[in-house]
Amino acid sequence: MGDTKANLTIDGTSREYSVLDGTIGPSVVDISSLYKDTGMFTFDPGFTSTASCESKITYIDGDEGTLLYRGYPIEQLADHGDFLESCYLLLYGELPTRPQKEDFVNRVTKHTMIHEQMSRFFTGFRRDAHPMAVMVGVVGALSAFYHDSTDIADPHQRMVASIRMIAKMPTIAAMAYKYHIGQPFVYPKNDLDYSANFLHMCFAVPCEEYKVNPVLARAMDRIFILHADHEQNASTSTVRLAGSSGANPFACIAAGIACLWGPAHGGANEAALNMLTEIGSVDRIPEFIARAKDKNDPFRLMGFGHRVYKNYDPRARIMQKTTHEVLAELGIKDDPLLDVAMELERIALSDEYFVSKKLYPNIDFYSGITLRALGFPPHMFTVLFALARTVGWIAQWKEMVEDPGQRIGRPRQLYTGAPKRDYVPVEQRR
Ligand code: CMC
What we know:
mainly alpha
């Protein structure tokens, strides 16, 4: 804690509040005693100026366009690391040594199957259900199958639940996909690595041999690394808030998945691809740029803008590179949607509206093109985001539960409804 103080004067009475410094990034004014001192709350809808917790996991510098997991730049992790190593890093705070990595990979691999009875859950859903609806239901249902890892006061159970979710999420996601397209479920193959196993569960069929393309598996792995955590975004805050009441971790992650689904958050990858498809050709871009700028039109450029990044999203840069690698590997020389995306980006980045509002492409702008090339239909995109973000949610949930000062999250409000009034019997109401 630094020695800086912030003074707040209300009606001529001045009070002093401590300013707390982080390792990097903005300091915070500790106003936790404000209500006790003054009888007032702070008002910050959308939490644009509120640090909701202390955390050591992920750091974003939105002006610089920097993203660090436990201090390591996302570019280095994406170039040199792999997803399970990033999971270990997020969960334990350090990159694993070789034996630690082998042990972790082994533990995750041993938990990839789901309880056989759970497969019957899927048949209860309509075939045309959105896979995110299936994910919310099935992940929430994990708590009905794994009672032995729902006691959040037990560190061993917490860790078992964490490993189970990282391990089972690809299996559940692949099953949601297979059910949707009417193909049989494919069991995990534990001799494949995490991402290759996922591709195998999604795209193999029992009637023929399916060999995972290592370049595509590596691209999938990198996409998972890019999505693994992102500080206190809406779904992570949802997981923390749900967990703050003592709810079990499976229920908390299901809550996170529900929040992620929205088009302003994880649902933007599906929405961005749908938008690029709707635009269709480069000559229609000006029409859509005009709509995005029109205050009376609710249309927004999906995959553009971010609450925190006021610079190029560093994940978008890596994603764009991955898009080119995947298309090259698949021999796709010409993808009309990529042409539309690149031209849209070029025009938007030189347009006064987008420049002045600091609206840059975010991770979702290019991810849809990549995921589609990998073979996924648009409504699987947010499922893949949820799969990868699970480790971030868990790391944040664990950090919160393990904080000795943790209390239930309970925001207050500025009430502007009716003041106290008396009940009126129905026959007297006008
Ligand atoms: N297209 C056109 N105008 C935009 C856009 C956009 N994509 N994004 C923001 N603006 C404008 C907005 O109209 C507002 O203008 P004004 O100040 O004149 O009212 C200004 O920029 C600030 O926007 P905001 O809605 O106040 O910003 P926010 O921080 O509340 O919202 C956002 C951030 C990501 C929800 C928003 O930029 C957006 O809706 N983007 C499209 C959806 C999207 O791509 N979401 C994925 C985010 S990254 C993945 C993830 O982390 O989930």
